[in-house]
Amino acid sequence: xxxxxxxxxxxxxxxxxxxxxxxxxxxxxxxxxxxxxxxxxxxxxxxxxxxxxxxxxxxxxxxxxxxxxxxxxxxxxxxxxxxxxxxxxxxxxxxxxxxxxxxxxxxxxxxxxxxxxxxxxxxxxxxxxxxxxxxxxxxxxxxxxxxxxxxxxxxxxxx
Length: 159
Ligand SMILES: [Zn+2]
Prior knowledge:
Blueprint: H1 2-19, E1 23-24, E2 30-31, E3 39-45, E4 51-52, E5 69-73, E6 77-86, E7 99-106, E8 110-117, E9 128-138, E10 144-152
Parallel strand pairs: 1-10, 8-10
Antiparallel strand pairs: 2-3, 3-4, 3-5, 6-7, 6-9, 7-8, 9-10
Zinc ion (ZN) binds next to loops.
């Protein structure tokens, strides 16, 4: 199932690429492997073991401050803690409005703020969502920027 979705996604991205040049946002936060699904990069402190997202160097633990961090892939699914529909945004986001935005709790006890890929008003608190990638806004040259988003978990039937 994941493989099928991935192919659809990359074909979609290829089509968009032909229209406009696309830039990737936040390489420190998001990894998009060619043959496996995208994941968010957690930063695990090798000294105190605490896990952080987004990237913090040195470790924000006041008893630690180590700079020795390793990248750990975070879970691709989480639950919506809080969701809201946004109608007004920065000028670079204008063509993508309105949009749903949410805090998503990952099993690692990390809360991620992200745009949701789907219709406004269609998400609920407590709903499980899955990591995906998509256009989040344009850069100042008007080119779309791709970053992480969360979407509804695909139904198993579609596998
Ligand atoms: Zn630490």
